[in-house]
Amino acid sequence: MTAAFATPRCLTNGRVRLQPITELDNRAWRRVAQHFRDPEIAFLNGTPPNRLPLWLLRRVLRADARRRDRVTYGILDEQDDYIGTIELYDVRTDRATLGIIIGERSHWSRGYGPEAIEALLDEAFEALGLQVVQLHTFADNPRAHAAFHKVGFREVRRATVAGGRTDVLMTLPRHVWLERLRRREQRVLQPARPDSR
Q1: Which segments of the chain have a pLDDT < 70?
Q2: Strand-strand pairing, 11-13 and 71-76
Q3: What residue segments make up the domains of the chain, in order of their start?
Q4: pLDDT confidence of residue 94
Q5: 164-170 long-range CB contacts below 8 Å, 24 or more apart?
């Protein structure tokens, strides 16, 4: 049984806003196409560069967005510029798989990925009531590993896949996410210590 998505809504966290992919403007769609065609991004994602024309890529991604087992967002930065894509797919009653691409190199290693992931995890665990979110990444992508560890994902298994790369399965259970939120809220609520000088 699949968890049903209501109409996706915009999500925010820190500097990022997640906007349903069906609501992206033409400028953002051109960036989507550039990201999907980029050979380095495709390699990191484990796919060949996409060669679909923009009109067909848009049609395919919009059709995917209508599926009941998937929700896809564009990631917008603090200037409202499109910088990447994030999604939950293979959504079931209690679990889903997360995928993310930060396609703008100017935003790599600057914390935008973890902020986007946290926004989507809030939706996954709070609105959908999922128990586990998992993801797959490659062992030769240290930037992705750092981002996933930062929000609480932990490695579960490694496997060698076609091409000799090592696929890494990572998971984040709901109870771990909720504990992280509780600790973060406690840090925010703690009064500042008086200066002891």
Answers
A1: 1-7, 190-197
A2: unpaired
A3: 11-188
A4: 93
A5: 165/46, 165/138, 165/139, 165/140, 166/138, 166/139, 166/140, 167/46, 167/136, 167/137, 167/138, 167/139, 168/136, 168/137, 168/138, 168/139, 169/134, 169/135, 169/136, 170/134, 170/135, 170/136, 170/137
b/e map 70-93, b = 16+ CB within 10 Å:
bbbbbbbbeeeebbbbbbbeebee
Distance CA 79, CA 16 (A): 9
CATH for 11-188, among 3.30.420.40, 3.40.630.30, 3.90.70.10, 3.30.830.10?
A: 3.40.630.30
Q: What is the pTM for the complete model shown?
A: 0.89
**pLDDT computed for residue 1 by the predictor:** 35
In sequence order, what are the beta bridge partners of 172? 133
Q: What is the pLDDT of residue 139?
A: 93
